[in-house]
Here is the input.
Amino acid sequence: MTAAAIPIIMQGILAAIDAAPGVIEVVEKAKALITALFTAKVINADQQNILHATVDNRAATWLSGLRPPHWTVEPNPS
Amino acid sequence: MKARIQRHIAAFFTIATAIVWLTACSSTKLETGGAYSPVNQWGTNAVAPMPELFATDLAYDLAYTVIDKVFAAERSNRAFLWGLSPSIKSTLDQVRGPASEANIQYLTARAVYLNNPTPAGLTALNTWLAKLKSLANSISAALPKELQL
Here is the structure.
């Protein structure tokens, strides 16, 4: 990958990510992380339960052998 | 376009910084009755509260989400991005395998820890979390230094 190609590549990735609603989720989780670890706020039961359930559900999927398709290497476009 | 890219760079810096700076915080306070501080029928803690597991799971969820969203965005826009540069897919394909393995190892270690919380179990969790963080940072941290604005 040439150095000149990388900016074009990254702009392409950013354009794609910008079109996806997931970028908001990532930023919100980052904010929640910083708040939880670097403030004196008590983590309430609801917050704990949501996180615990999220990771539990993910474990149930992954440890059963299932994979989201975007986590697997697929053939290149023709 | 430029302003939007700059906002995304700022967002990814925040994410990468949060991931890198994260450590299990012993001062994390958990409300009694939550999943990480469960109570018995008498309203007292059924087991010792697990603020370290909460902090680790929180960091894990962020790292997983960063990786997940980048993979999903590439796949959703594959034809377009392939036309832009085949290197995008090939670069992410190199991360897909290690990321999947690290994720499975983290979830496996977590199941072990939940069954029997020990310092060694927490160390195993943090080992795989560090791997996921590294992979998440390699995806997001690569963006700012190479972009020419």
Observations:
- Chain A touches chain B through 60 residues (CB under 8 Å).
